[in-house]
Amino acid sequence: MSQAKVVSNAVWIIAGQVVKMLLSLVIAMLTARYLGPSNFGLINYAASIVAFVMPVMYLGFDSILVREIVNHPEREGETMGTALLLSLCSSLMCILGVIAFAYFANAGEQETVIVCALYSVLLLFQALELIKFWFQAKLLSKYATIISVIAYVVVSAYKIYLLASGKSVYWFALSNAIDYMLIAAGFLIVYSRIGGPKLRFSLASGREMFRSGRFFIISSMMVTIFAQTDRIMLKHMLDTSAVGYYSAAITCANLVGFIFVAIIESLRPPIFEAKKHDQKDFEFKVSQLYSVIIYGSLVVSLGLALFSSLIVRFLYGAEFMPAAMALKIVVWYTTFSYLGSVRNVWIVAEGKERMLWIINLSGALANIGLNIVFIPIWGINGAAFASLLTQIFTNVIVGYLLPPIRRNNRIMIQGLSFKILGGMVVDMKSLLMRKFFHK
What we know:
By secondary structure, this protein is mainly α. It is 86% helix and 0% strand. The longest helix is centred in the N-terminal third of the chain and has 56 residues, at 3-58.
């Protein structure tokens, strides 16, 4: 895979995410102000519960599809068709699971149960969105970007209508499902139009992919626990307003996170490709990815921490100012969370998926314990501190405790080299200049 194609793919992903970020920023700001901390917290509580079942809905396929397509291009249609059908069936079971949990965990709270049920509908369409990994593997993210942006513009207009017409929180809970419905439909249409292989189902392929992906189900659930448990615990230990404040802080902390997600997604296929041919080149590419993620996210975190009060007041208003201090703390956890994303790329490439459940179980247990300790003492600030400590423990310390993945930690340390960072920046700049000014 040429560097120029990788850069072009990254540019499309980032451009699309910039548009979505700007739209989501405006819509989230207006929605939070309209709903208030309590109802805004209720929506985010529902989102956290739905996030818990997503790993089961995906069956681990979201972590292995790019690798499967890169390594076995002759059976792309079978791989994608099997993954889509199995995930779709799984999504129906997950929706029932969300409704059942909401009913028993929030007995007597009819509004909470209805909001969770409506929000969970998005699982049905998110299962079909797995088709995006075919576009990623083929470095055709421009199509995925265009589809996502169009869908997001439509849904943003719909949410503005909901705000203007004074609709209830139920309508906002369902609006996310419309977004994923449009995206899934767009992906399938474009996939067919550009000559994507015919989708077909194979039970044998399903078993093979599940054997490989099953490790990611448990590990992803563990990740979800230490990513979402804090909001659920805040709701049951404090109230939905606390969830609203904390969710506002998390949203601000991830304002430009799409850039790092786009970089990781774009470099994942060439890293897998390098692994097939040259171990030294493979490790060098991983260290380059670490370098960009580490230094880029540290700069962003510093800026967000310094201007946290201004950011919260501007985006959410004075009513959400309790989120400012939580933002100062939680913003630093993003750097360590991205380190975990890069580590997972290395783990998949090395075929060490079995280690993921140990890593993420350690993080989940640490997060639950830390939240139990710190939430009663510091409230939402305690939840933010627990999240930061969890990410440091899971994505750095655990790497030294487990011998099979210590090599990754050494590669991560190599990524701290300014020489590696400088070389990658120069290469990227040169490619971008040629792309836009020397066609």
